[in-house]
Amino acid sequence: MKLAPFIAVEGPIGAGKTTLASMLAEELQLPIMKEIVEENPFIDKFYQNMDDWSFQLEMFFLCNRYKQLKDIVSEYIDKGKPVISDYHIYKNLIFSDRTLKGNEREKYRQIYHVLTDDLPKPNIIIYIRAELHTLLKRIAKRGRTFEEGIDHNYLQQLIEDYDAAMTALAAHEPSTHIITINGDVVDFVENKEHFEEIATQIKEFME
Fold first, then answer.
1. Which residue range or ranges hold the Deoxynucleoside kinase domain (predicted)?
2. Is 14 marked as a binding-site residue?
């Protein structure tokens, strides 16, 4: 039986994940699952002191994303209905591997696998890849207060971490189709043709 599309839009901070996922949800008439960001009570403290608040931040994200994923499994995926998300839960490992160290990292990875190993993974990933200057421009444009002092080195490292993660996913989850978008060149917000090209690729997988 052909699986209903479970589409995830991914990329580092500021790539435009939520914007693209929302546009595609409207174009394709799909329900959308959006990640919780600003509701995380530890996020301001994290950007002020990453070492002290990383574990609390990452655990909050993990538990909330786990609950969201369980909900879409029961509401859509188990019923054969397509759905789109503005994240892949795998991002928890991308970020935690960067922010956590030693025993805390190992504990976190164990909890992650206990919670997520038996849950469905997206069969389509749209990966928005962009360089630092593009991400910084988009971060400034959306104007989130807690992101104003984001460490440029941290953001650059996330770009590299995402590249490595997508390569790993392609190798270990061959049933997942990854569509990579050059976010420095493709402007799916201002250029209608750019967006339509992305939407067309997704429609082909839904036929």
1. 7-206
2. yes
